[in-house]
Amino acid sequence: MTTQAGAAIATAAQQDPVPKKVRIGPNWGDLLLRVAAGLVLLYLFLPIFVIVLFSFNDPKGKFNYSWQGFTLDNWLDPFKYPALTSALKLSLNVAAVSTAVAVVLGTLVAIALVRQRWRGQRAVDTFLILPLTAPEVVMGAALLTLFLDFNTAAGYTTIVLSHIAFEVSFIAMTVRARVRGFDWTLEDASLDLGASPTRTFFKVTLPLIVPGIVAAAMLSFALSLDDFIITYFVSGSEVTYPLYVNAAVKAAVPPQINVLATAILVVSLVLLAAGTLYRRKKIDA
After folding, report:
1. Euclidean distance between CA atoms 17 and 30, whole angstroms
2. Domains contained in the chain, CATH given
3. What pTM was computed for the model?
4. 47 and 265 Cβ atoms separated by less than 8 Å
5. Which residues pair with 253 in a beta bridge?
6. CB-based contacts of 74, cutoff 8 Å, min separation 6
7. pLDDT digit string (tens) for 102-137?
8. How far is CA 147 from CA 26, 143, 241, in A?
9. Is 70 exceeded by the pLDDT of residue 261?
């Protein structure tokens, strides 16, 4: 009888669980969190929205500071100012060359740091972190002093070398994170099957770390294209896109600056979307 009563009580407890407390009124914590997140997103995306919006502005002359009306003329003639076009071409050239060199050097350093153990490895680790933590003003002044000591005239070459100096660190750190998750037994299996070390690298190792290399290259290219402070120290008479924009802000801001900035943003978003779709298709496959 006691057993039957206990079973009945247990069954009733399962069928009629203790009701949960129902919150009455707004959840102020949730509401505050959403408001804070919305303000942060607004803070981040409002400048981008202003740039895109003012690329369609119709100002009187070059002073693109206040909204004067909607027009597509700016987009029909984005290269109206030769100096601006030349500055953008130089920035793209510097970013492409410095990124190509930095990707090779940074990838080799990342593989060496993870794959091998050698004397001085900790020192290299420290030197890789320095460009990431040192203020850009310090980096720019140090690089300028270095070039002056070697009697190297400031210009295109010094800009490229300076960009490579800080890009290598970003690429090495990004690729190293990818390489650390690499299964090195795959290399051993390839070598055991008779493949040469070179063939193993290009057929096994490289394809598996390519996503990390591509991500590092995109980051490096963006950092180079955006850099102002270090470039300001070592540019000499050369004018990159950030330097041109800085000079233009002091006098006037032609809407073509906003047009080219918006175009760069659109291209970046397209590449990001393409990369995301490619990864998803690869995962699904």
Report:
1. 27
2. 31-73+254-284 (no CATH), 81-253 (1.10.3720.10)
3. 0.79
4. no
5. 63
6. 55, 56, 57, 255, 256, 258, 259
7. 999 999 888 888 877 777 777 877 788 888 888 899
8. 63, 6, 22
9. yes
